[in-house]
Amino acid sequence: MWQDELRCIYHIAEKDMRTYYLKPPAVSWGIVFPVAWTLAFYLRNPQDFAELVPGLIAMTILFSTTAAEAVVINFELRLGSLERLLLAPVSAESVLLAKVLGGFAFGALMTLVVAAGCIIGLDLHPDYLGLFTISTLSLLAFSSLGALVSVSVKEVFEAQTLLNLPRFIMIFLCGVVYPVSAMPEALQVLAKFLPLTYTVSGLRSALAGGTPYLWWDSLALLAFLAAFIFPAMRLLGKKFE
Amino acid sequence: MNTPPVIQANDLTKRYEDLVAVDRISFDVSEGEIFGLLGPNGSGKSTTIRMLVGLSRPSGGRATILGRDILSGMIEAKKQIGVVPDISNLYDELSARENLLFMARLYGVPKALQEQRADDLLRAFGLYERKEGKFGSFSRGMKRALTIAAALIHEPRILFLDEPTVGLDVVAARSLRNLISNLRAQGLTIILTTHYLEEADHLCDRIAILVKGKIVSIDTPERLKSLARGRLSIEFTFSSGISKLMDDLSERLSDSEVALLDESRVRIYGDDPQRIFREAFRFSEDHGLGLEAANSVFPSLEDAFVRITGLSPVVMLKEKGGK
Lengths: 241, 323
Prior knowledge:
The complex is a heterodimer.
Chain A: H1 2-21, H2 24-44, H3 49-65, H4 69-79, H5 81-86, H6 92-121, H7 128-152, H8 156-173, H9 185-192, H10 195-207, H11 213-239
Helix pairs in contact in A: 1-6, 2-3, 3-6, 3-7, 3-10, 4-7, 4-8, 6-7, 6-11, 7-8, 7-10, 7-11, 10-11
Chain B: E1 7-16, E2 19-29, E3 34-38, H1 45-52, E4 60-65, E5 68-69, H2 74-78, E6 81-84, H3 96-106, H4 111-124, H5 140-152, E7 158-162, H6 170-185, E8 189-194, H7 197-203, E9 206-211, E10 214-219, H8 221-226, E11 232-238, H9 246-252, E12 257-262, E13 265-270, H10 273-287, E14 291-297, H11 301-309, H12 313-319
Parallel strand pairs in B: 3-8, 3-9, 6-7, 7-8
Antiparallel strand pairs in B: 1-2, 1-4, 4-5, 9-10, 11-13, 11-14, 12-13
């Protein structure tokens, strides 16, 4: 029954948060790295820190959600602990969803800290509904991306290495530090196929008080979420066929 | 009136591309029974269990657990079964008590009962004093005990035990076997896989012997052992090592089977005891081995296993070394 599935999803996500996420390595990867990266760009051009805020929040979302996904999936697969979860009265799809929600919850916490610090510190007046919508969809999409990469490989290090590829490509091509419009045309086309582009664009709109384009960004992120989470569910199920 | 079996498997099959891991096996398990799946590594024991508990999808055939089909009704069936996999796979980072409470929550044990049940199990398994100790810091025997306790937290009707004593020392293994006997006394149905023949003999009401994915025999240990009667096995103990002379001894007793038990002991299976004794004495004298003892051994489940499966006793003895 769906109540059983929801109960299991909640307890698995809560266990993952306590066991893996709220630990120094995940916190440093999820928050220290984006802050340090942004600080480097700020020191280069200290006049306009507010311009960097959408990129900082976007990076926090990207890195915090994917910080421990490889651990919660590949490490548990290796130890047999993931199998232990599947012995409970819960489907493989719900176990995968629980893993995604663990990353989502940790990412939301880190994003809240960074976003609140920026909004209060720089006296910004964002469109809160837009900010919430873009952040939530992005957190879910990137946590699902982490899950998809993790279930596609066997080892923790393989997942971490493979995840670094989209993470670093997206930092440079999605408008985090350089506007997409300033890039060569071919890279602008490529940026359209990367989810972080829509996160940065959506956050920029929301922090500017909201624009109609924000909802297009939301729809794009929803499509990426579906493109990541359903194959990840299928792949996890297949591992146990 | 006969109660329906709690587990029914009909032509259950598992294929991995060209490999048939489980080949159309059929069996029933009655309530309160300890049913053993016995066989060498790769015989399909664990794959059978994995299909029955929902971790692997059968390629063919059908099985039910408490009347529920394992394909369509597995989630509901899982509420009534406890599973102890062949590895102790609880969470290293969580304490013994936290692990049990996490399992209680997953299985929907009512909140008011969770702590009481966890503490009762910790006491029953002798782990209460270490309840705050992290699972990762436990000895192999303690990990095994806690893994079994975790499988019992929701009071299942059926318990699946996959190689429960592999890797345990003698004392821990004996204590675990006593525990399994106690669980049966409480009315639990237990499905046990093992490649320890003594364990199956000691614990099981019925045993299915699997070889290369097929069940070659199902019966009580006593009936299986009776199949080996009429075939003698004799154990010889020498004062010197015999392992390097095994080929010579096997050649001399070419109509018998010779198994090395340890450096100075062999067991010989055959139909002509006089010839076995005579040749063994001569062999000892020829090589100056110093024969210390010769005992005829009552047919064991091991003898039955060897006779039924046709596997060499040496293979079985190697299996005892563990996976």
